[in-house]
Design goal:
By secondary structure, the protein is mostly helical. The chain is built from 7 helices and 2 strands. Helices cover 72% and strands 6% of the residues.
Length: 166
């Protein structure tokens, strides 16, 4: 019986160490992707937050400025300057709702998408090469892990941006 309990304890310790190593690698990945995005932003003459908002518009648009503010966790007043820069740079359009002239919809303009994607080409090729080393089942597992981790990050962000959080 002692041998079984010792083995279970070893298993628990190894699993905790592995989970800690995964958290450390996720932090390292987050930092590296942040640095990549910073370099892309600089090359496109955008601020880091501008690029984040542009990505959100690409992924979720068209959407209203208030919906973008919620997704980005930004105050609507802060968003105005970002949207002005993105529109001036030819990245987005602000379209008026024909039924409600006060309502605005944000959409990404496709004209500059090649320029944006070109800056990520090296990373995209590298990820394709990495994925080639895994089976389809392993890739499904990894994708599921990343989806769940992204969801956890979204929840943690929501908790921090909640109005009653201190």
């Amino acid at each position: 019986m002692e041998l079984v309990q010792s083995s279970e304890g070893d298993h628990t310790r190894r699993k905790r160490r592995q989970a800690g190593a995964i958290r450390a690698e996720l932090r390292a990945l987050a930092i590296q992707l942040s640095l990549l995005n910073h370099q892309v932003s600089a090359k496109l003459e955008l601020k880091d937050t501008d690029l984040d908002c542009l990505d959100l518009i690409w992924r979720h648009g068209p959407l209203s400025p208030s919906a973008l503010a919620r997704l980005a966790g930004l105050h609507p007043a802060t968003l105005t300057g970002i949207l002005d820069r993105l529109q001036k740079g030819g990245w987005i359009a602000r379209d008026r709702d024909p039924d409600d002239r006060r309502a605005v919809s944000l959409r990404a303009l496709r004209d500059r998408s090649g320029e944006l994607l070109g800056h990520y080409a090296g990373m995209n090729v590298a990820v394709e090469q990495i994925c080639a080393d895994y089976t389809e089942a392993e890739l499904e597992l990894i994708a599921g892990f990343l989806r769940r981790t992204t969801g956890a990050g979204k929840s943690a962000t929501g908790e921090l941006t909640a109005p009653d959080h201190t």
